[in-house]
Amino acid sequence: MVSGVSMALxxxxxxxxxxxxxxxxxxxxxxxxxxxxxxxxxxxxxxxxKHISMLEAKNYLxxxxxxxxxxxxxxxxxxxxxxxxAVVTEIPLLGRIAAGQPLEAVEQREVLHFADFAGxxxxxxxxxxxxxxxxxxxCDGDMILxxxxxxxxxxxxxxxxxxxxxxxLKRFYREAGDTVRLQPANATIKPxxxxxxxxxxxxxxxxxxxxxx
Length: 213
Known about the structure:
The protein is α+β, with helices and mostly antiparallel strands. It has helices at 5-8, 11-27, 33-40, 45-57, 75-81, and strands at residues 61-62, 72-73, 91-98, 110-112, 123-129, 143-147, 157-162, 166-175, 179-183, 192-195, 199-209. The chain is 23% helix and 30% strand.
């Protein structure tokens, strides 16, 4: 019989598992031990190895031999730790997103309490930087709520990761020749045209939040 969650995992072990799961959700691949140590402010790689080994022994993780990016969450973790929550009370604020030229999106460890805006647990928030979407009433400094998706329809306002490293907020359109057009809503800014294979959809716009001072 499987032990209860509180008995099976220490607080730190659950943090390690959740970090790995969230990293995979965001990037599509597992974090390295160095990224785990940095992300959780662990003292050393030896500490990461210790936690990974304990999580393997408890059947929450599997890993390939001598490969730091071959970690895999087991069905036990999915069943026990990632059940849908009935009420969403916090939305992770993951960083800032370019609405001008693309820039690297940097994760931050903050949360926004917007349960009334969140339809389900796959909603997250970003802060807009730039004015390339101003004609769609999305301005510099606005908070946007996004549904985590990997596909988009023509005309959707999406967060698109370009060439694996640069994220931007634009309207999504498919063009001839397997090309994607990331269209700003600002007549002074040119669209971004890139091969479809270099574009990864990370979210679709749900709401825009603006605080007036």
